[in-house]
Amino acid sequence: MAPFLQMYGQNVDSLKVQHKLSYKSFIAPAALLVTGAFLLNSEINGDIQTKSGRVFGTTFSSGADNIFPFVPIAQIYMGKSLGFAPKTNYRNQTVNILVANTASVIVTEIAKRIAKRERPDLSDNLSFPSGHSAVAFTNATLLYYEYKDSNFWYASSGFLFAGATAAFRLANNKHYASDVLAGAGIGMASGIIFSHVSPLKSFRVSKKTNTTAFVYPQVGNLIGLGAIINPNF
To answer: Is CATH 3.40.50 the classification given to domain 23-201?
Structure first.
């Protein structure tokens, strides 16, 4: 593996933790996961869903929950233009976004197929945990760690969209409270890990290469990310 990485300009020593990663960082995501698991087969879960239907109405439908998860990505890229100092450059931001979201989607998809929890609207049995919430909180967490040292309020704003995503998943009758809480926990954990660990920090095809990448959302039956990579040799 090491010769392969070195051949493509990857410094094996760059697979390292950039800043000290403490177990305290995972208290919030762990609490969300535990709470979600606790509610999974409880009456409280159903009660919350019933009250959500009363608040939003049984015919409520909105596609906003397909957009909100990706707003923090735009904020990550736009922050520098707005006068805030990012922790990393565009290349590392793109890598972190791709890797963190991929990790979140893989974990949630595996968990969905293990849990086989039926959705509130009975459309399928892939309710637990919420993939939309996982992606939303992944990106909100990446935004937070990217700009928290520059502007706390801008860095934290992504959680408004992440929270809105979770709320709309309930309102659209696609998830229970347990699902969005567990998804949020998975997303936060992934965002924290890949905000501290930069696995491809020094990756470059060659020393003279200036490669750019554009990340865009893919929304359909499954939620995810696509990328257009433009190598410039």
So the answer is: no
